[in-house]
Amino acid sequence: MKSYEVNFDGLVGPTHNYGGLSYGNVASQSNSQQSSNPKEAALQGLAKMKALMEMGFQQGVLAPQERPDVAALRRLGFGGTDAQVIERAAKDAMPLLVASCSASSMWVANAATVSPSADTADGRVHFTAANLNCKYHRSIEHPTTSRVLGAMFANQQHFAHHAALPAVAQFGDEGAANHTRFCREYGEAGVEFFVFGRSAFDNRYPAPQKYPARQTLEASQAVARLHGLRDEGVVYAQQNPNVIDQGVFHNDVIAVGNGEVLFYHEDAFLETEQMLAELEGKLAKAGGKFQSVCVPRSAVTVDDAVRSYLFNSQLLSRPDGSMLLIVPQECQANERVWTYLQGLTSSGGLIREVKVFDLKQSMQNGGGPACLRLRVALNETELAAVNPGVIMTAPLYGSLTAWVEKHYRDRLSETDLADPQLLLECRTALDELTQILKLGAVYPFQIN
Q: What end-to-end distance do the CA atoms of the chain give, in Å?
């Protein structure tokens, strides 16, 4: 039976803004308070989805969150009508209003961790929504994320959904941004690779000194247990705390994997040689041949990697066995990074081609091509069981483009977030979107 890796890209929401909310995310903080362009951001994301679809890759779309999150503000003591809640929050606690308007859910690499059926004990595809507990503005995402994923992957014969881990620091979980999977074929058993920044209970693991380590070892282990993964099919590795302190807040800012290949920076991990040997050995037992491509610090510094998002790229398998790397324009603008990539693709190695996309609106908030997508390996039967409304087609692209043009503003500043009309615009748009994507009632305003 044929299998695929399907990329489900996050649709950028109508409140896309630069709140500078993520301490440790250099791009997010450096562009704080600038005016954003939600319409351009959404169209840039859709253009990438369409391009991958036209290249022959399976592509889907994941709906954004309802923002502002009025229910979250009510839990913090703001009362009255929805408009009054927003007005009072803007007057008394503007940072909380900004947090409630966060569009960070567009980076669906953080939405959940996904294990394909070939790896799990019960032979189903397992999803665990990430608690994103490190940042308040992200910690409010997982209830809606769970409902949206449940509406997309509703067939209980093929799909299993788990609630987010306990919302405490010891189980900080950032989803697929710190998880990848190696396999010979997508439908065969593979090795799931969990990367953590710190241990909550074992002080033998060093921690960063400047920026927070968002993913814990204990969270990764809990997800592996929930998904019924075999010990021989799991490898845990620690991020280098020094690179976290340089702005590498997730592993997908410093490494990306696909198929049998890991593309990573020389300084990405601790105990690198031991980790590579474990990956090689376990993948060999699963019938695969692990291969790695290490980018030396002499060619690309960690600072270059963070500024260009070289590793926050999509590594995609082509039918001839070669790989395609999808990168943001910022890679082309960085002389050292672009020189490295030109040499990489001309060497006749595993990565044969690089394609560049304009994702400036996302990049300015600290998210590149890899942040925008959640990877789900599915066999033909499972793909047929996915809600067909979320699978990208030419007609769906046309409908979503028209929807964005109709509902999105082309400029949004912090002061605009205090406008109660923005909430009405967002709800009107999302109500229409759930009909386009055939999701049913997934947003609080549709349910309550």
A: 42
Tokens of 166: 């306990």
Total number of domains constituting the chain? 1
Domain assignment present for residue 88? The answer is no
180: domain CATH number is 3.75.10.20
- On whether residue 317 sits in a domain, the answer given is yes
Any catalytic annotation for residue 335? Answer: no
From the list 16, 126, 250, 265, the catalytic residue is: 250
Which residues, listed in sequence order, are joined to residue 191 by a DSSP beta bridge? 182
Range list of H helices, 36-75: 38-54, 70-75
C-alpha radius of gyration, the chain, whole number: 21
pTM: 0.95
Q: Assess contact for 159 and 125: CB atoms under 8 A.
A: yes
User: Which tokens in the block code for residue 324?
Assistant: 């395609």
Active site residue 371: yes
Identified catalytic residue from 5, 174, 218, 382: 174
Domain that holds residue 324: 3-67+102-447
Instruction: Report yes or no on 117 lying in a domain.
Output: yes
377-401 confidence digits (pLDDT tens): 999 999 999 999 999 999 999 999 9
pLDDT(26) > 50 = no
